[in-house]
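TICKET: design request
STATUS: open
ATTACHED STRUCTURE:
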């Protein structure tokens, strides 16, 4: 850092050199309005600001860190997977409906907008999958990390007679992405509401 600021998950600093000051930010870094919005939506994100001159290192439970450069587009990411962003990026909440419930993260997710770098965490190196027109992608909700681009997200059921008879593959619910964009998937699954059926 050269006098600029970074917003990071509270408590994620593991080391730093130079003159860096830390302070807790309310509302996921978006002030009072962000705090009210996050409380109403249940999309919790406790953020701190690191500002100053030097080098600051961030980590979260030994997870992989994936850097994403935004050039005016929007990144939709589960708040648990957002480690830090440049202060030039704006964070807020976005309605996901049943898609969010199936992934175990509620009706809302975090959106990051603007120009700058964001650091995402994943259990294992994230796989970046391209979605293009006419070629939708289905993702296990427990493996989903984030997405960018012009994508429509919908809940799909993989359940059929084999599931009801106990012969299914355990993948009863998927999230389908259609349109044009990128989807970040982790090579590990977290427990979800639509898990093994």
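STATUS: resolved
RESOLUTION: sequence designed for all positions
ATTACHED SEQUENCE:
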């Amino acid at each position: 850092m050269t006098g600029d600021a970074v917003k990071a998950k509270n408590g994620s600093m593991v080391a730093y050199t130079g003159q860096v000051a830390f302070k807790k930010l309310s509302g996921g870094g978006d002030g009072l309005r962000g705090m009210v919005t996050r409380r109403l939506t249940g999309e919790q994100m406790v953020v701190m600001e690191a500002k100053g001159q030097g080098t600051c290192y961030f980590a979260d439970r030994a997870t992989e860190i994936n850097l994403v450069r935004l050039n005016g587009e929007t990144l939709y990411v589960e708040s648990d997977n957002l480690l830090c962003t440049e202060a030039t990026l704006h964070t807020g909440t976005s309605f996901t409906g049943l898609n969010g419930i199936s992934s175990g993260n509620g009706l809302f997710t975090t959106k990051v907008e603007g120009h700058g770098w964001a650091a995402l965490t994943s259990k294992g190196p994230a796989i970046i999958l391209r979605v293009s027109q006419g070629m939708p992608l289905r993702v296990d909700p427990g493996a989903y990390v984030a997405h960018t681009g012009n994508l429509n997200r919908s809940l799909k059921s993989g359940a059929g007679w084999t599931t009801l008879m106990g012969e299914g593959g355990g993948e009863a619910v998927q999230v389908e992405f259609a349109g044009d964009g990128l989807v970040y998937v982790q090579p590990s699954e977290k427990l979800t509401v639509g898990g093994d059926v």
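CLOSING REMARK: The helical segments are 31-41, 98-102, 161-164. Residues 2-185 form a domain with the Double-stranded beta-helix fold (CATH 3.60.160.10).
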